Amino acid sequence: METRDEQLLNLRPVLGQAQTYDQMSSQEFFQNNTLRPILKLQNDLILALFRHYIEKHKGVFYEISPERKMDYIESAIHKDMKFRNILKGLVLGQFTLEEYQIYSADSSAINKRILSMIKERLKSQVQVLSQA
User: Fold this and answer.
1) Would you state the pLDDT for residue 43?
2) With pLDDT > 90 as the criterion, what percentage of the chain qualifies?
3) Distance (Å, rounded) from C-alpha 109 to C-alpha 118?
4) What does the H/E/C string look like for 13-39?
5) From CA 14, how far away is CA 33, in angstroms rounded?
6) Predicted confidence (pLDDT) per residue in 32-72, tens digit
7) Residue 115 near residue 84, CB atoms below 8 Å
8) What is the model's pLDDT at position 5?
9) In 3-state terms, what secondary structure has residue 106?
10) CA distance 129 to 119
11) Cα separation of 55 and 45, whole Å?
12) Domains of the chain: which residue ranges?
């Protein structure tokens, strides 16, 4: 019977472009080997959560200019602590025990990476989000 960790690792997509090098910092290595695959796996759920966030805030996002949409995404993730914590939880829940130990050792820096990557992911898919 597979362990929880094995099942989680088997769910993750394999990313061809996520390369690792000897000179890479441990955070970069963690980002490429753990965070990127998890975010790709969770992409549809991240989009669904952001759409729900938009709806909870009266759908203003759909009526603003593309430039303001970028600011809206930044603001939502930067200022709304509850939303931030939900997004972080989506990623943390996919960690193996070993990955959680790595995360625990430097959670503040890894949280910044997680939220930054989610912001960029949402911004790059703003066209998908604009289709209400």
Assistant:
1) 97
2) 82
3) 14
4) CCCCCCCCCCCCCHHHHHHHHHHHHHH
5) 9
6) 999 999 999 999 999 999 999 999 999 899 999 999 999 99
7) yes
8) 96
9) coil
10) 13
11) 15
12) 28-130
Alpha-carbon distance of 128 to 132, in angstroms, equals 8
- Using CA atoms, how far residue 37 sits from 54, 82, 114, 127, in Å, is 25, 24, 12, 22
- Report the predicted TM-score, pTM, of the whole model to 2 decimal places: 0.91
Q: Whose CA is closest to 90, among 71, 115, 125?
A: 115
- C-beta neighbour count of 68 within 10 angstroms: 13
Angle at 99 between CA 102 and CA 39, to 5 degrees: 115
Instruction: Please name which of 14, 17, 19, 20 lies closest in space to residue 40, comparing C-alpha atoms.
Output: 14
